[in-house]
Design brief:
Oligomer: single chain
Low-confidence stretches: none
Number of helices: 10
Radius of gyration: 18 Å
Helix content: 40-55%
Shape: globular
Number of domains: 1
Distance between the termini: 26 Å
Structural class: mainly alpha
Amino acid sequence: MTLEWAINENGISSDETNIDTSVEFSSMSGSFIGGNGDFVTLFEPTASELEKEGYGYIVASVGELGGVVPYTAYNAKKSYIEQNPEVIKGFNKAIQKGLDYVFNHSDKEVAEVIADYFPDTSIEDLTNIVKNYRDSDSWFTTTYIEESDFEHIQEIMENAGYLTEKAPYNKLVDNSFSKER
């Protein structure tokens, strides 16, 4: 959806492109390698691995082109939040601690901490990936979600035809456990 929004924002109509949304996200790199499409959106380290193996080139950051998007969100029922505020507070504190670590440590230090989660990726490659994410300002500094960012992700969903009515920010976003930016 973000790729489609970025394409449209740069003057190319969705009607002029063929965006195949039928491919399961985890199968996108294999589908691309197999000849499906001229472009593909991939997370790291998959994108860098595909480039390193000679199957394509990283030409842009969809995250950077898409603007500020609160892509990753954590959901809980209102009743759970009300009955377990210490759990929510602790979870949020842990996420914030991770964000603080990223912003207070070097690319290599971050790469070394996450290396166990990417056993097939070298520290050098992970360091470059972390640097790329940092350079494109891909990480929020806090778990706080601004209303304008919430509205933007809904614009992206509307543009792709997946949202017909906007959801109310004040009913879906609870920033009471977050520090403001």
